[in-house]
């Protein structure tokens, strides 16, 4: 086979590989990936709640072009938001994390609760769901997008 024919075959195979369904291009997550992504969720909570690095701790959990709630874009904006909101007696609690590999990275869905820990009784401030796109970068797993979806508290049940 001539060099030209080999080049054509290689080009066609490369094009076919690129045309494969997205799901076929994604492999399962390794156990270490699950551990590192769970750590990412924890680092976000600690950085936001404790004001780690004057906002940089939160920014470090996102990609350079990371987006929070469609309005806060980029590390500088994320750090500024965290600087304003961080610290104090509130605490984030994240649970029921479900991770699904996608063509872009990993889709993460989790429940969150935000509590006021300023007294002996923790008071629920807000609860809801995180919808995340998480990608692996040279610095490890990072949020590319994070959308918080607050859930309104249910009305108290009527007495029976």
Commentary on this structure:
This protein has 160 residues and is of the alpha+beta class. It has one domain: Nuclear Transport Factor 2, Chain: A, CATH 3.10.450. It is 32% helix and 36% strand. It is built from 4 helices and 6 strands, in the order H-H-H-E-E-H-E-E-E-E. A 6-stranded mixed β-sheet has the order 2-1-6-5-4-3, with helices on one face. The termini are far apart.
Output the structural class: alpha+beta
CATH architecture: Roll
Number of domains: 1
Name the CATH class: Alpha Beta
- Average pLDDT works out at 83
**What is Rg?**
21 Å
Low-confidence stretches: 1-26
Q: List the helices and strands in order.
A: HHHEEHEEEE
Our measurement of the CA-to-CA distance between the termini, rounded to an integer number of angstroms, reads 85 Å
What is the general shape? globular
Q: What is the helix content?
A: 25-40%
Q: Which fold does the CATH topology refer to?
A: Nuclear Transport Factor 2, Chain: A
Which keywords apply here?
alpha+beta, Nuclear Transport Factor 2, Chain: A, 6-stranded mixed beta sheet, 4 helices, 32% helix, globular, disordered N terminus
Brief synopsis:
By secondary structure, this protein is an alpha+beta fold.
Task: List the SSEs and their pairings.
Blueprint: H1 3-18, H2 31-50, H3 56-59, E1 62-68, E2 72-73, H4 75-85, E3 90-101, E4 106-116, E5 123-137, E6 140-150
Parallel strand pairs: 1-6
Antiparallel strand pairs: 1-2, 3-4, 4-5, 5-6
């Amino acid at each position: 086979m001539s060099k030209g024919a080999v080049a054509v075959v290689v080009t066609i195979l490369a094009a076919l590989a690129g045309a494969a369904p997205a799901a076929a291009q994604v492999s399962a997550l390794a156990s270490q990936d699950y551990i590192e992504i769970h750590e990412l969720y924890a680092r976000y909570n600690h950085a936001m709640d404790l004001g780690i690095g004057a906002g940089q701790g939160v920014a470090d959990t996102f990609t350079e072009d990371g987006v929070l709630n469609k309005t806060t874009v980029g590390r500088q904006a994320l750090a500024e938001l965290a600087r304003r909101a961080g610290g104090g007696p509130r605490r984030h609690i994240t649970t029921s994390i479900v991770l699904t590999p996608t063509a872009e990275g990993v889709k993460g869905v989790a429940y969150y609760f935000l509590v006021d820990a300023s007294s002996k009784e923790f008071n629920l401030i807000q609860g809801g769901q995180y919808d995340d796109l998480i990608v692996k970068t040279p610095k490890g797993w990072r949020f590319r997008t994070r959308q918080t979806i607050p859930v309104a508290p249910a009305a108290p049940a009527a007495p029976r």
